[in-house]
Design goal:
Layout lengths: L1 E5 L4 H12 L3 E6 L8 E2 L5 H7 L3 E6 L13 H22 L3 E7 L16 E3 L10 H20 L3 E6 L10 H6 L2 H8 L7 H18 L1 E6 L10 H15 L3 H8 L9 E3 L2 H7 L7 H10 L6 H6 L19
Parallel strand pairs: 1-2, 1-4, 2-3, 4-5, 5-7, 6-9, 7-8
Length: 328
């Protein structure tokens, strides 16, 4: 069985290709950029190219996309071409090729404005049932591509699983205030409480989704580290998140202080991964408890895979104002 991985030169695409090949499984990587994990170079917006690379494929894992960091540097048409037309090409050719499972990498950014409640109300409890309110072209095109996936599952009997992944990139935050107050490691450790996931856990979710897709037919799941909170914590997370964390993990303050780290004073949303764990049998390993365990032992909390893939960036040029320009 051969798996087609789109976006094989990107963070997740490379991690998937590396894992599949390490397991001795047949995989074909495609990307617009050459890389050591890219077997064919071309655009998913090119129907002829997609048709060629789909030959003998049984599973498609579609990670190729224009991301949020491209919103300030690319036109709306570029997002439509890659995120919508490219996905449509893959879906149609997958049906023609008799593909057994299609996994689409989406994003929690698809929830859009639903993720940012007003300051005077509790943090948002984000499950798959939250209605998306896209706030930029990235979210709009990803939700549109999700709808195409659902259409092909229902009308063309293509088993599809959509995974809305939270943050797993290693780059510094795009928010200058966060960069000024917290080291990259400190900020990303904090995010594992509510809005981040290690790339090793993302890979395992995708491989499980590919295996489970035929029995699921169509499913949409949030992929994020398991949060330690419950809905009763939401008001206090907005008012005093550090207090909630210290109640749940009394040792956290001491371990953080030893590293010169601090907890975020407020948390505005919590991603809930329960549906993915139940439907896929997914067991994410890298959560906040893991962070504290690593701090006790003096180890890096990132997975070996995350460290091996490293930072790739999203643009050829380097920007003075941050890791990438932010559309306001």
């Amino acid at each position: 069985m051969t798996t087609l991985v789109t976006g094989s030169a990107g963070h997740l695409g490379e991690a998937l290709m590396h894992t599949l090949r390490a397991q001795g499984r047949s995989a074909r990587g495609i990307d617009i950029k050459p890389s050591r994990h890219t077997d064919r170079t071309g655009s998913i917006a090119d129907r002829h190219f997609v048709r060629e690379v789909m030959e003998s494929i049984e599973v498609v894992i579609h990670t190729a996309t224009l991301h949020k960091p491209h919103v300030a540097t690319h036109d709306y048409a570029d997002f439509v071409e890659t995120n919508i037309t490219g996905t449509l090409n893959l879906l149609e050719e997958a049906v023609k090729a008799g593909v057994k499972a299609f996994v689409f990498t989406s994003t929690t950014s698809a929830f859009g404005s639903a993720l940012s409640p007003k300051p005077d109300i509790p943090a948002a409890w984000i499950t798959e049932g939250v209605i998306s309110v896209p706030k930029n072209i990235y979210g709009a095109t990803k939700t549109s591509a999700e709808s195409l996936c659902e259409l092909f599952a229902g009308r063309h009997n293509l088993p599809v699983v959509v995974l809305r992944t939270s943050r797993f990139f290693p780059e510094a935050d795009d928010d200058p205030e966060i960069r000024g107050l917290y080291s990259v490691e400190n900020a990303q450790a904090n995010e594992l409480l509510y809005r981040r996931v290690d790339i090793e856990d993302v890979v395992s979710a995708h491989l499980l989704a590919a295996r489970k897709a035929p029995e699921i037919s169509f499913g949409r799941y949030i992929v994020s580290a398991t949060a330690p909170f419950n809905e009763a914590d939401l008001p206090m997370l907005r008012e005093n998140a550090a207090g909630v964390v210290e109640r749940l993990y009394p040792e956290a303050s001491m371990l953080y202080a030893a590293r010169g780290w601090t907890l975020f004073p407020t948390i505005d949303r919590v991603y809930v991964n329960e549906a993915a764990r139940l439907a896929l049998g997914w067991q994410p390993r890298y959560d906040f408890a893991h962070v504290l365990e690593c701090l006790r032992a003096g180890r890096d909390f990132r997975s070996k895979l995350a460290k091996g893939i490293g930072a790739k960036g999203y643009h050829e040029e380097i920007f003075d104002e941050g890791p990438y320009p932010v559309a306001r």
